[in-house]
């Protein structure tokens, strides 16, 4: 896709017509005091070939694209700039020198975008939000819009179709109940007794009251690692990857209570069409969530959204709707002190997301179905790195985000003992997608 308007567009705007005589420019009427300038600009008309002028319009458009929200806007600015250059030049040589200087000036202006705190996305004051400001310090509605537009086009082919969404257990709209979602491949173990739960960590069955609270305090003891088979003298031996304990040994992790990972399929919202679809790119964002275990199962406790420039645009802890049984601190790094009363609810987070995620916004993530379930957010325009980089043994095997970042980005993440970092993970997913795009020879700015 070419982002730049063609030569014919130059004619339509009244700057000069390629089919008419070279000099047929519509120079706007000017006051008498500027007569000299006007005469000079009319003399130069024949001296700057149309294709040279078009070339500079193109180059100017490229520069303006770095700070303007749309191609149309950039093109109009480029036309105005080129017209100024043209009017100031007595001959072709002068035109070239003025045009080159103008281009240099523009490049300097758009080279280093400054960062600033932006309040357009976040509703809550604790949220850290960074967006890129243009050279004049004005806030652009979307960071690096030109880059986003290029990225968006290149990523289109990686968007999962409905079949893939079903296969990978993404939440989909329940056709019979608005605001409810369904999972087609729900293979979680459940029991028929409404007052019994199966612990998703150790597999034990435990009893709960009508409100979902544990009726007995019972420790949950398990291995979070997998059994790994190893050759040892005299045969094979399976040990847990978490603690090197022999298969069958008592769990190396002990928790106060059992937990279950059911997700309430009500209270879902769907991303909506944009009100002004022509205006700008729908955007590309990567997101990562943390969950905790409550009396009602898995609930959202943190969300972090990163833009295509790898800047955090939305990051907040989230207050679960029910009593927390286990903060899942070992993996999430989140503890009781983080989830304060003034944290937004999942409903408030949904409303914030709806402000910048429309139905055609590309959301990037690793196994994003879990995040979307926790967010109770129905969205089908998804690029999932766990699907984009398949396991060599095929589904249901999936590579972890750790595997992928180590293999493709040559980096180790999620090593921290106090849980992994959602911003790191979201950024890693975006980087993986950028890597893939580059590898497949897409995009033009590499
Ligand atoms: Zn273990
Ligand atoms: Zn358990």
UniProtKB/TrEMBL annotation:
<dbReference type="InterPro" id="IPR034922">
    <property type="entry name" value="REX1-like_exo"/>
</dbReference>
<dbReference type="Pfam" id="PF00929">
    <property type="entry name" value="RNase_T"/>
</dbReference>
<dbReference type="InterPro" id="IPR047021">
    <property type="entry name" value="REXO1/3/4-like"/>
</dbReference>
<dbReference type="GO" id="GO:0005634">
    <property type="term" value="C:nucleus"/>
</dbReference>
<feature type="domain" description="Exonuclease">
    <location>
        <begin position="283"/>
        <end position="442"/>
    </location>
</feature>
<dbReference type="GO" id="GO:0010629">
    <property type="term" value="P:negative regulation of gene expression"/>
</dbReference>
<dbReference type="InterPro" id="IPR036397">
    <property type="entry name" value="RNaseH_sf"/>
</dbReference>
<protein>
    <recommendedName>
        <fullName>Exonuclease domain-containing protein</fullName>
    </recommendedName>
</protein>
<keyword id="KW-0540">Nuclease</keyword>
<keyword id="KW-0378">Hydrolase</keyword>
<dbReference type="InterPro" id="IPR013520">
    <property type="entry name" value="Ribonucl_H"/>
</dbReference>
<keyword id="KW-0269">Exonuclease</keyword>
<dbReference type="InterPro" id="IPR012337">
    <property type="entry name" value="RNaseH-like_sf"/>
</dbReference>
<dbReference type="GO" id="GO:0004527">
    <property type="term" value="F:exonuclease activity"/>
</dbReference>
<feature type="region of interest" description="Disordered">
    <location>
        <begin position="12"/>
        <end position="46"/>
    </location>
</feature>
<dbReference type="Pfam" id="PF15870">
    <property type="entry name" value="EloA-BP1"/>
</dbReference>
<dbReference type="GO" id="GO:0003676">
    <property type="term" value="F:nucleic acid binding"/>
</dbReference>
<comment type="similarity">
    <text>Belongs to the REXO1/REXO3 family.</text>
</comment>
<dbReference type="InterPro" id="IPR031736">
    <property type="entry name" value="REXO1-like_dom"/>
</dbReference>
<keyword id="KW-0539">Nucleus</keyword>
